[in-house]
Amino acid sequence: QADAVDPDAPVALELDGVSKTYGETTAVDDVSVRVREGEFFTLVGPSGCGKTTTLRLVAGFEAPSAGTVRFRGEDVTDVPPEDRDVGVVFQNYALFPHMTVGENVAYGLNFAEPPGDVSREERVQELLELVDLEGMADRDPNELSGGQQQRVSIARALAPGPDVLLLDEPMSALDAQLRERLRVQVKAIQRELAITTVYVTHDQEEALAISDRVAVMRAGAPEQIAPPRTIYHRPETRFVAEFVGDNNVFEGEVVGVDVDGYRGEARTRVDVAGTEFDVVTGRNNVPNRGESLTFCVRPEHLTLEAPANVIAGTVESSEFLGETTRVNLEWQGRDVVLRTREPLSGEVRVGFRPGDAHVVSR
Ligand code: ATP
């Protein structure tokens, strides 16, 4: 990605072996991550995986049961939230209804002087321009749409010029259209300020769309941390492969391996429920005969023209999605998902290229 953050940029914030337990529950389990200056870093995962708790540990609303939180290399584990230079945006906007939009933004300054050489009024104007709400200062929050209200709360969080912006599911109360618009706006604001951002969502599509890097969390810890494209195309585990986007996961037994020393790849033959498939694996990852192997194939890589790796299944359902149709096949008692231009029915044969299969662990 052209706009990815420089991997040599200084570390803005770091969790080092951080855990948080509530009685018997381990909400966050020994998490170590480093977020770089200017990076848009997203925590995504199913309900209860510890996203919000991780964010609250960064903000300082919670104290870790173990581990260290650092901002720019400095230990802030015992520093209260108001002294951490973070701006926080919550799901439910939390605007004051009896204050105007401008007063809500000014409230973000609290008693602090505005950053730069500007008055409070000028700072409020600056921020309203930034979030594309210029001219709205005298409105009441309830006269604004949900997306506009959320932009006011972003402006309020940014008012004192924090080093780090934290957002906890800021779009989940909005409908799909507003969400997509706001997502583009949030990304643009983040880019313009180049502010280090940690974002929490359960929506994997949102995570892929908005982030420089994504941490896919499971049971209190990241299972993979990588740029969106890597998460999508090179998931490391079955959990990540299944959580992010549609995917077809197959598990089988290795029945043959052919190493091509010239191209540096191995072609592995895998038996899945009596059907054999050819799968390309990296040279460093050559499996042994008799081992079990799990691989996945994205729906868009299953095609009707495929010469090899044929899956002969029965169409269970077709969903028209506009640009494509999502087709569910039943094959050997399994669900197989593909995307086609036209709806399909009856018996169909689809296949995939060996290089389009991707091996995952666990
Ligand atoms: P969601 O998407 O549903 O908000 P999440 O990934 O943000 O989930 P957390 O809210 O961080 O998850 O919760 C992680 C786990 O810790 C859950 O099992 C939750 O019930 C538990 N938990 C969180 N906060 C507390 C608390 N204050 N007291 C007790 N248990 C808690």
TrEMBL record:
Residue stretches making up the ABC transporter domain? 13-244
UniProt EC number: 7.3.2.6
Q: Which reaction does it catalyse?
A: tungstate(in) + ATP + H2O = tungstate(out) + ADP + phosphate + H(+)
Any one GO CC term of the record: ATP-binding cassette (ABC) transporter complex
| Key words, A-Z | ATP-binding, Molybdenum, Nucleotide-binding, Transport
Q: Listed GO molecular functions?
A: ABC-type tungstate transporter activity; ATP binding; ATP hydrolysis activity
How this chain sits in the membrane, per its record, is: Peripheral membrane protein
Query: Which one Pfam family would you cite for this protein?
Result: ABC_tran
**Gene3D superfamilies on file:** 2.40.50.100, Nucleic acid-binding proteins, P-loop containing nucleotide triphosphate hydrolases
Task: Identify the main location.
Answer: membrane
Query: Where does it localize?
Result: Cell membrane
Instruction: List the PANTHER family.
Output: SPERMIDINE/PUTRESCINE IMPORT ATP-BINDING PROTEIN POTA, SPERMIDINE_PUTRESCINE IMPORT ATP-BINDING PROTEIN POTA
The record's function comment reads: Part of the ABC transporter complex WtpABC involved in molybdate/tungstate import. Responsible for energy coupling to the transport system.
Protein name (record):
Molybdate/tungstate import ATP-binding protein WtpC
- Species name: Natronosalvus rutilus
